[in-house]
Amino acid sequence: MLRYTVRRLILTIPVVFGILVISFMLTRLSGDPTDLILPPDAPDSAREAFRRINGLDRPLISQFGTFVVNVFRGDFGNSLRFHEPALSLVMERMGATMELAVAVMAIAILVGIPTGVVAAYMRNTPVDISVRGVSLLGQAMPSFYLGILSIIVFAVWLRWFPSGGRGTWLHLVLPATTLSFQLIALIARVTRSCMLDVLGQDYIRTARAKGLSERRVVWLHALRNAFIPVLTVIGLQVGFLLGGVIVTETVFSWPGVGRLAVQAIYARDFPVVQAVVFLFAMIFVLVNLIVDLLYAAVDPRIGYR
What we know:
Blueprint: H1 2-29, H2 34-37, H3 44-53, H4 60-71, H5 86-121, H6 126-140, H7 143-157, H8 170-199, H9 202-209, H10 214-251, H11 257-267, H12 270-298
């Protein structure tokens, strides 16, 4: 497993370089940040000084080379808007984002997997049909639309939860449930499909013939053998989660990295955008590596060479 892990880490080097290239080029394609950072009546001398101080007057190749060298030193530059190190700004907001992300994944896993198991076990019953219908609705409804509806119903009409901000656990309920709704739908559908394949296998019939309880057969033997595809989907949905955090944090005024990224994009704050993209991409790569390593824990027949 150690050799496999080291090989995977080595393969992330071209991935990291590709992320740096894409994040650098896409931010530059958005235009010159000078017009947004400086006031409209700023003189030409101030504009030229701003570009010179921030290295925007140099050729793109030179800017990219400096950017790559500084990134490997842990320096993404200073924010054009806040005049602080971009990485420090992102890390200050990372705690709020991770709090939201962990809550979303916990809700999605704890609700989605049992729902999919029950739907598979009660196939073609009203329970199964309801789960499939809600799952279809959950994957079709955009998270920002669901977030606005939840604010109107639960914050404005019923006054059960705050409409935005971060503080107590009540502030976490609406954004976490809104963002987890699509994940619950997907995990439930995948779990149901995998469980239906496993429940028809011979070893399941053998386990029942041996007199094992139905609960043990379904939740231990069947679910464990059906869990690898579900685990893969959970790992891949980290990318969706990181993208959904940006929208959800904006809707609910959650002070996390996603909201900071939106503000930086509007202001063409290149260093902050690049830092956010790089960190999100690294989290996605790391989570998928962890998922690959967990396969052996779920199924001992899997080995790494």
